[in-house]
Design a protein that fits this description.
The structure holds two protein chains of two kinds. Chain A has helices at about 1-40, 65-70, 120-125, 130-140, 160, and strands at about 110, 115, 145, 155. Chain A is mainly alpha-helical. Chain B is an alpha+beta fold. The chains are: A mainly alpha, B alpha+beta.
Amino acid sequence: MGRDCLRHWFVPGVATLVLCLVAGVATAAPPRAGGDAAKPNGASTPEKQFAVPTPPFTPGIFPCSECHKEMKPNPKRRELKDEHTNIVLNHGQWRWCLDCHDTYDRDRLHLVSGERIRFEESYRLCGQCHGDKYRDWKVGVHGKRTGMWNGEKQYLLCVNCHNPHDPRFKPLAPMPPPVRPGDIR
Amino acid sequence: MPTQGKRDEPAFRMSRRKMMKGVAAVLGAMALPAKDAPASVWESFFQKNFRELSPDDLKGVLARLEKEYSEKYKKAVKVRATPPVEGILYGYGLDLSRCIGCRRCVYACVGENNQSRDPQIHWIRVLQLNKERGVDLEDAEQYYNPAKVPEKGHFYMPVQCQQCEYPPCVKVCPVQATWKERDGITVVDYNWCIGCRYCMAACPYGARHFNWKKPGLPSAEMNPETHYLGNRPRPVGVVEKCTFCIQRVRNIPGRYTACVEICPVGARKFGNLLDPESEMRYIIENKRVFILKEDLNTRPKFFYFYAT
């Protein structure tokens, strides 16, 4: 009788303890993961900054406000006839200048969230659509890094290799092929 | 009239054994340096295998080589013998979805590693493959030369030394002039190599190259930052190979290899396989990776991958 009573209390007791432990671990873990995941969403938590080179502007074109400060911004979607006619937009469909360039601060770009960013941070803008490439770029797998393999590295911005208005990588002329063994004297 | 017996009597008697001895002695003497050869030639003649050199011996050898090369190439040549760093195992990644076959890497390697320009030696061979047939080496073309690359329907696979975990080239060397270092780089002691080329026959990747002639290396193009086991000028009659730019990567901090640095599409990756934070580990853990000729169990530390 006494032994049965002990078992009667002991088994549910252990089960409750185990349940509590499991629940504790389960509830303890999510906030950490959530904290990491929350980072890219809010503009309040700044992203990791990368040491990048200056963006490859056409000489003399930056700062854009030099010319634009006199003009009244016209947010109407249209084809530019007077200026920037050399830029042919070949990047997805239904895009136009002010999707990426900021209407009221011409020296900056803007994200979909409305956050204005400097041209040095343009990778964040690109990363909005090309998330997989952005993820790989951040760890050094997409794109090129030079410098020290186990020390200070130089990064390249997306726009150092891809023209943002026409991003496909252009074909190159190959270097000469090797000499055939029969032709080596 | 001479008798029969007298005619058979040879005027000068020499046994075959004696003659062979004489021939061997003369040939042996010819192989020695000349009597008036400079001391450095005698020193290199009696130099031990790199791995048996004492620190003092090594210092002397490096000084001798620096003097010799500096005179020959008319500039201050540095020959180092930086040892492997503990806790590092070099790994290399090549993104086949990015490579466009422009061969920039081939010539950057030649410039960095002092390969012979004439006769030409390339440590990297870029193969053009057919997208429909995949990695089919029977169908590979290395002499492609269109106006622009990449060509439609093709992809490109550069092949160089794969720095095997079990290198067949090392196994066959009859004099142990080539070996795998602790950081995974297979190296050659050019002063110990006898030029038998067994290693070239054993290598399944065609990664070893022989100096059939005295290497043609113009002084102006010679890279004076060298490593004893890497890019120092080679004599005629020895085998050479890619060393992951040992003269660059073994330093702390060490520069990226010349081929990584030049690649215009960023297809080449390099890092420490033992560092969980390295690019190489990310690639191996997250991307589709393959090694070349896996069935041979050479266990390359050169990983081809597809980033997309």
